[in-house]
Write a structure and sequence with these properties.
By secondary structure, the protein is of the alpha/beta class. A hairpin with a 2-residue loop joins strand 7 and strand 8. Helix 10 runs parallel beside helix 20.
């Protein structure tokens, strides 16, 4: 029977969501547009790198815009739509070019003039400031200064009225050491590690603000006009970085999130990045932002205690074996514990530097970075918010602890259990397949004051991590017996089952799961137990779930050092790899 407290919470949430009908369609008419981010343009396909396109492909793209009704817009028009003065046209598109290569003047600008397509071009100061004839550090290479435009060319393009220049930072297009092990991470979003210490938040903000101010001054001097838009290097940004950008005078910020843009959110304007010189059909599909959920997801649990040996050599050897194991398993994501527990299950220490708990070892950042960059998986951090509250007794301390987690560890998602109200929140009809940006909009609706304490804390903790890691996925663990539907507030919902209960869950999944592709792909079977499943148990569970239409599943615990379940035995049934197979 429902308690009075739970009933009050349920009614409050029901009224809240009733007042926000179809909240997932929250981009108002006249404020929706899309943006595309090009880089270098070359004549010869042999000169292509991963982000470049050929001149022929760019001509085809401009022809495509004209022939299919797309309306190129400027930042002035985006701003007018934001203020409610003039709506954007249907099929509005913002065309951008990053890095300031010489092709911007020699190949792009003539097409801009011929087609009358306005563009935004982002410049990095450290690449353009050196004198002619010098060499410029560009990524891991050294290139001639002549690879980039000159001030005279920039001023000519600005005078045309069709090219607006933006900042791409002064010198943030590189990595900085992000942990004691020396992993290089994007400079704009990383608290750097130097002289045996991490950069403080104040020092990080100062470093970022100094660079962005310098970039504004440089672009103003180089082009004759100060920039109002910040284009984040590598597309990496955070709420904290956005605050800094606003504080130094930027009124727009562009990312590389693959989703539609909302003029009402000028400091978070996502863009589609064409890679591999794509054909027009691929560009067209990506500009429509059709569902991008993978056809299969395989999630494996990782315990840092199984990787850390107490010394660098042994830890690196185990980490290498773990990476190879995940590749053999065809994993797409890992759930990583952020705390170590004692024999009773209580939190004993953390795997990341913080001010609230003892640190068992500062290895989580390295583990996450290596798994994401070398194993090719997403790293989802298991954040035990309710357990942490029981151990620490103060929500402020819990929030501070996980805020420090976000600041230090470059994760792509957070897994939270013990938040039944959030996990049980169902979407309105037609919203079960909500896209990531729609889920974010729904997630922003609940007021913590209206939620039960565990749910309010879970959202607050997620927000603390998300402040530093944007965009961040929310993964919720459902309660036993919950209806087989994705939480409306989560990007992904895992349903814990045991080997014995898995067949019954699979029957319910086949009978009750929402229709359509996306809802089923936002639901995962999470096989749990006191020990890692055997190969026979995992294969049987996997086959049964797939026959019922399931596409996402995982298991916990996993015994990586003991190779249990044996990767080579289960990979043919559990691997998410298609071709090439990752062995």
């Amino acid at each position: 029977m429902m308690s009075r407290g739970w009933l009050a919470w349920f009614l409050a949430v029901l009224m809240l969501f009733a007042g926000h009908a179809r909240a997932a369609d929250a981009i108002k008419p006249g404020q929706r547009f899309v943006a595309v981010a090009f880089h270098d343009v070359v004549d010869d396909p042999a000169q292509l790198d991963s982000d470049a396109v050929t001149t022929a492909r760019l001509v085809e793209f401009f022809d495509y815009l004209r022939g299919t009704g797309w309306k190129p817009v400027t930042l002035d028009e985006v701003d007018a739509a934001r203020r409610g003065e003039r709506p954007l046209p249907d099929k509005a598109i913002l065309v951008t070019f990053d890095d300031g290569y010489s092709s911007l003047y020699t190949r792009v600008f003539p097409l801009v003039l011929a087609y009358r397509v306005p563009i935004v071009a982002a410049l990095q100061g450290s690449w353009l400031a050196p004198p002619p004839g010098s060499q410029v550090a560009h990524g891991s290479a050294s290139v001639p200064r002549e690879k980039f435009i000159t001030s005279e060319q920039a001023r000519e393009m600005a005078r045309s009225g069709l090219v607006e220049f933006a900042s791409h930072s002064y010198d943030l297009q590189h990595g900085v050491p992000g942990n004691p092990q020396g992993n290089e991470m994007p400079a704009a979003v990383t608290r750097l590690y130097a002289k045996n210490a991490y950069e403080s938040e104040t020092a990080y903000r100062t470093r970022l603000a100094d660079d962005l101010r310098k970039s504004r001054e440089f672009v103003a001097d180089f082009t004759g006009r100060p920039p109002r838009a910040m284009v984040w290097p590598f597309g990496r940004y955070s709420a904290v970085a956005t605050e800094v950008a606003q504080s130094v005078g930027f009124s727009f910020a562009l990312t590389l999130d693959p989703e539609p843009a909302n003029a009402a959110l000028p400091m978070r304007l996502p863009r589609y990045l064409p890679t591999g010189n794509p054909v027009l059909a691929e560009i067209d599909a990506n500009l429509r932002f059709r569902p991008r959920l993978p056809s299969a997801q395989r999630v494996v649990c990782v315990d840092p205690g199984q990787v850390w040996t107490g010394d660098a050599t042994g830890t690196n050897e185990r980490l290498g074996r773990l990476i190879e194991r995940l590749r053999r398993l065809g994993s797409t994501a890992v759930v990583i514990d952020v705390v170590a527990r004692d024999a009773s299950g209580s939190i004993a220490a953390a795997w990341f530097p913080n001010s609230e708990l003892p640190v068992r070892a500062d290895v989580l950042s390295r583990l996450v970075w290596q798994l994401q960059t070398r194993a090719g998986v997403e790293a989802w951090l298991r954040v035990p918010s309710t357990t942490a509250l029981a151990a620490m007794g103060d929500t402020a301390r819990v929030r501070r602890l996980f805020g420090e987690l976000g600041a230090q560890v470059p994760a792509s998602g957070v897994v939270i259990e013990g938040a039944p109200g959030l996990a049980g929140q169902r979407a309105e009809p037609g919203e079960g397949g909500a896209m990531p940006w729609q889920v974010r909009q729904l997630r922003a609706l609940p007021n913590a004051a209206t939620l039960a304490a565990p749910d309010a804390l879970a959202l607050q903790v997620f927000g603390e991590v998300e402040r530093w890691r944007t965009p961040l996925k929310l993964v919720l663990l459902a309660e036993a017996g919950a209806s087989v539907e994705p939480s409306a507030l989560a990007d992904f919902t895992l349903f814990p089952v045991t080997v014995d209960s898995a067949p019954r869950f699979t029957e319910r999944f086949a009978a009750d799961r929402p229709s359509g592709i996306n809802p089923g792909r936002r639901i995962g079977l999470w096989l749990t137990g006191s020990a890692a499943p055997t190969a026979k148990e995992l294969v049987a569970t996997t086959r049964r779930f797939q026959l019922a239409g399931g596409t996402a599943f995982g298991w916990c615990p996993d015994d990586a050092p003991g190779d249990m379940p044996p990767a080579d035995q289960v990979a043919p049934d559990v691997s998410a790899s298609t071709f090439p197979v990752r062995f």
